[in-house]
Amino acid sequence: MEVIITPSAREASAEAARIAAALIRGKRRAVLGLATGSTPLGFYDELAAMHARGEIDFAEVMTFNLDEYVGLGPDHPQSYAFFMREHFFSRVNIAHWRTHVPNGLAVDIPAHCVAYETAIAEAGGIDLQLLGVGTDGHIGFNEPSSSLGSRTRLKTLSERTVTDNARHFASAEEVPRHVITMGVGTILDARRCLVLAFGKQKAAAVAAMVEGPITADVPASALQFHAACTLLVDEAAAAKLKRVDYYRWVCANKPAWQRA
Ligand code: GLP
How far apart are the first and last CA of the chain? Predict the structure, then answer.
């Protein structure tokens, strides 16, 4: 896994946006896997700013979001569909039909999950999957003990995630207990993964993801199997990594052709 440590979340978000923009410029019909949470907000701001300056065109881009709360429709302010419209889709030239977020109101959830996987495959697969990490090491909503080969499906949130995400709701009781999430296997199928993690509350999960054993106990650790995964972290989230000197050395000694 490539580990890039930046002085602050702002630099990491700018670098992640630069990587996404380079992909879109090289492939107009790029397929992006997108994430929610507080972590990618700077990334979306950067992409929206690049779009406003006329630097990226999203007209032919397609997107698939990682996850959604069961029971929340797209007009619920805490739904991820609402989040995506507010923080990204409404700020760039992407048609609604080209964006996909799992339907939290699906009547037949297993059938909806199969259809979501089929839609990703029919789009040609995900070129770039953006990811955050939960403090318990989850990616998407794949909580500890998730199968590392899992596909899009219903999951029950851990108590820790309910507590972590309660800050977005009036109380912890209002946080839905169930979600639809891409599986770890779905995520690993993306051609490139870009993980963002900021702040000291993520330091333990980041260390377990990058340097710990590969285990369903830390679903993010499955990314060690991915052939093209880049982690962008600020200093605080990197604080528990053991090989920081090596990661910095690799960045400082990158061949010129890799810097492009
Ligand atoms: C949420 C989302 C994840 C996100 C993570 C971290 O519950 N399902 O996709 O990466 O938890 O959230 P935050 O970025 O707010 O710390």
Answer: 19
Q: Which residues of the chain have pLDDT under 70?
A: 260
Question: Measured from the CB, is residue 176 less than 6 Å from ligand 1?
Answer: no
Of 46, 117, 127, 143, the catalytic one is 143
User: What was the pLDDT predicted at 260?
Assistant: 58
DSSP structural state of residue 193: E
Query: Cα(34) to centroid of ligand 1, in Å?
Result: 11
CA angle 251, 241, 160 (to 5 degrees): 125
In this prediction, residue 67 carries a pLDDT of 98
9 in contact with ligand 1, CB cutoff 6 A: no
What is the maximum alpha-carbon separation in the chain?
53
From 117, 127, 136, 234, the catalytic residue: 136
Return the structure tokens found at 208: 């377990």
Amino acid 258: pLDDT: 81
pLDDT attached to residue 124: 98
> Which run of H or of E encompasses 117?
helix 109-122
Residues 221, 137 contacting (CB under 8 angstroms): yes
pTM for the whole structure = 0.97
Q: For the CA atoms of the chain, what is the radius of gyration?
A: 17
Q: For residue 257, report the distance from its CA to the centre of ligand 1, in Å.
A: 33
Amino acid identity, position 159: E
